[in-house]
Specification:
Elements lengths: L12 H51 L11 E2 L6 E2 L11 E5 L5 E2 L7 E8 L7 E10 L10 E10 L2
Antiparallel strand pairs: 1-2, 3-4, 3-5, 5-6, 6-7
């Protein structure tokens, strides 16, 4: 009988421990990035919905008919019921506050609303035909807009000619 010389090849315990440490480090990093990615995704969803609501409000304000004679009286928008001031009206220092639900429509139930929309308006003057509106939408709706988790702001000019 011939005797065979077999060399046993295997990983040492130290090598296995180091490999497991590297794998655990990589998995912890990936799981940490998943949490950040999920958070950023939710922020993006909220911002997109807020911009869509601002677009709807802007369209509603611009679609509001001008009274005859022009700019003689305040008008109310049809969908969001925002008052557009008459000509020569000073800037509103207190905003009109609306609460918007998940469906993007105004709601009176402040406890179930998702967004808070604040609108400051300025009436047109003798030299300009535009009424301006500063729109600030923030979330969550129950927080004051100064302490909100997120917000989007827009300034629009409503042509009242």
């Amino acid at each position: 009988m011939k005797k065979r010389n077999r060399a046993i090849e295997a990983f040492t315990l130290v090598e296995v421990t180091i490999a497991l440490g590297v794998v655990v480090f990589c998995l912890v990093s990936v799981f940490g990035l998943l949490a950040v990615g999920t958070n950023l995704s939710q922020i993006s969803i909220d911002q997109t919905a807020a911009v869509n609501i601002l677009t709807q409000v802007s369209s509603d304000l611009n679609a509001t008919p001008n009274p005859v004679p022009k700019n003689s009286t305040a008008q109310t928008s049809t969908v969001f019921n925002v008052v557009i001031p008459a000509s020569g009206t000073a800037t509103s220092t207190t905003p009109t506050t609306l609460y918007i639900g998940d469906d993007g429509q105004p709601t009176t139930a402040t406890n179930t609303a998702r967004y808070q929309l604040n609108i400051w308006t300025t009436g047109s003057s003798a030299t300009t035909q535009e009424t301006t509106a500063r729109l600030l939408i923030s979330w969550p709706a129950q927080a004051a807009y100064t302490n909100a988790q997120g917000s989007v702001e827009s300034l629009i000019a409503i042509n009242r000619t």
